[in-house]
Design goal:
The chain is α/β, with parallel strands linked by helices. It is built from 14 helices and 12 strands. A 6-stranded parallel beta sheet has the order 2-1-3-4-5-6, sandwiched between helices. Strand 1, helix 1 and strand 2 form a beta-alpha-beta unit. Helix 7 packs parallel to helix 8.
Amino acid sequence: MTVTFVVPAATVPSGGNTYDARIAAALDALGRPVRRVEAPGSWPRPDTADRDRLARELARLPDGAGVLVDGLVACGVPEVVAPHAGRLRIVVLVHLPLADETGLTSDQAADLDDRERAVLTMTGVVATSAWAAQRLADHHGLARVHHVAPGTDPAPLAPGTDGVSHLLCVASVTPRKGHDLLLEALARLEDLPWECVCVGPAGRGAHAGRVRARAGALGVRLTGALTGADLEAAYAAADLVVLPSRAETFGMAVTEALAHGVPVVAARVGGVPEALGRDAGGSRPGLLVAPEDAGALAASLRLWLTDRDLRERLRTSARRRRSELAGWKQTARAMCAVLDEEGCR
């Protein structure tokens, strides 16, 4: 049976959009047909027209049809999902709990949290890491939450720049991704040689403006979103990837770095330790630091920049971990098992 996959209309590159596109293609390649439907709108708070469009899309599906819905679309509109939860086999794919996005007021977060709980209690649920699955189950009182981690594409080994000083951050410029923390950490390292490039959608609003101003003062380059060969070139030049996020359910930038054999310094949040993992010998291919702590991040970056033995250990571990990463075919098989278990046959 063809599964209908409802996703937000992609306007900028993101981990969630990448996951959606890759899992759809991988399911098709396994012989599990997917009809991908893009839902335009400012999700999770769409206007009336976009909400009604989603309602019509669900209404036209026959009873018993299997539907996979991106959580950004589904979780904010329980009033749209509820009329179809009993007759369709709906599974919600949660990339990030709605209330975990930064920049929300307490009232906005509470409202989104309530809406998400209402949706997830009437559907199947799949998260992108074991950590996220357990958190959703505990937070919303769910009996079962599946998890299907993102796959990783094989990538060429990054030659780096000088093996030390070229730092790369791949993340959208939003408060959740912690660019302000990275810039504060780098400001404490002006006695050492380094260069830093930040790749990702530039963001809007006051936070993005402050990041641009501070980056300019420090000489940090913001490239905006890169894809394809341009993104590959950014990874190829990287000696170290840095992810200072305040919240992550997985952290696809971590496994993308490891696919290139590049070590990682990242905040110990959410599913990031899961994404970083350990190599077959039990060593981590990077350093995990306390979240929202620019001083701790600066200390770890100083270690990287000054300790040659540490760099060699982390680089060796990253290259070992590179060969152990699961691909999208494995991810698709896991998603097939979830869909089967939830009755989406």
